[in-house]
Amino acid sequence: MNIAVFGTGMVGQIISEKLLELGHQITIGTRNVQDAINRSEPGRLARPGFGTWHQAHPAIKIDTYARAAASASIIILATSGDGVLPALKQVEPQNLSGKILLDITNPLDLSQGMPPSLFVSNTDSLGEQIQRTYPESKVVKSLNTMAAFVMINPSLIPGDHNVFTSGNDPNAKSTIKDLLTSFGWQNHNIIDLGDITTARGTEQLIPLWVRLWGTLKTPIFNFNIVLGKTE
Amino acid sequence: MNIAVFGTGMVGQIISEKLLELGHQITIGTRNVQDAINRSEPGRLARPGFGTWHQAHPAIKIDTYARAAASASIIILATSGDGVLPALKQVEPQNLSGKILLDITNPLDLSQGMPPSLFVSNTDSLGEQIQRTYPESKVVKSLNTMAAFVMINPSLIPGDHNVFTSGNDPNAKSTIKDLLTSFGWQNHNIIDLGDITTARGTEQLIPLWVRLWGTLKTPIFNFNIVLGKTE
Fold it and tell me: Residue B72 belongs to a domain with what CATH number?
């Protein structure tokens, strides 16, 4: 598939590499292409700067948000949470209409430092805000409850553990489920929570995720929902 | 131990039965003793009304919040979330000072129906509100991330799954850890998240818990945190 990945950070890089490996055509979308390519300073967790990383992955295209979205059938939202709506605003509305927007972001508010709070929560969610702003698009929230390395390689963590999906369009969720399967997620570990309002639940899991990261001293963990014995 | 359990509902009943079985002296605290005893209509999930239940469990005492707290060394808060602070207000401050308040409630706002939202969240939590209101007490938040039947019988769910603790006082958390162990929780499945501000994380897990209940069609499940392989 022709996939746009919005965001040049660690999450965008890791998911783009995996999608390329799986045979997809990838265009990373960014605000200013030249600025991104010029970025050579290492980023979070000693990841290379985007320009350095991009030189090592020449098969991954980079373009403006607008042009990356125009040619894509799926747009993966992997910017910072507060960058999602501004990025989508750069795209001509007809280039979003009817398309799947896979939202893997979280509405982190880091303005008060760590631990972050959420800039939308409880009675609304970022997933819902995106769906309301683009009613002709099919928003699917998924993968936002774990570190990027786990998203694209669930076998990093032994045994069963879960990924959630939220969204109003069953066909779009089915397409995303296939994508998750191609990343290595087993069918029985993909839990569809329901419509996009259920994104409130997964986004509000992040405050616990952040505290567990502190307690466990590693981001390589995930949640497994364990059911009681049936009589 | 002499334990007060605040709340005559399903959670209060289930935890009181277990504590009695473990040999503790239990006094259930309520606003109006006679009202509670007169309640014979079945409650949630076809539980007997409090009066009917109490007749079947005569060894469990019932008294006002004030008197139940006065004689107890630990007070378990098992009312509705919005009932916690009003209940504690009925107690003479010196009868709360220095005592452990085990808060197993969630700040559910059911005023808009299901699914509930939270009446405090994100930048504050009910656990913190209680600790701020009673700085001389030792608030420990725990057990609030699961159904009551699982709280007191973790073996209902096979294998590993977790219970969290949040609180500022290490000795109080140690006492609660012993209580959890007596319920059947294994040491390695009890995760101490840190101070009482970490209660924001576990309280914000409830919106996801409620959606999972809907998806899984049973409340008998729990979260297991699975760690990545170490190299």
Answer: 3.40.50.720
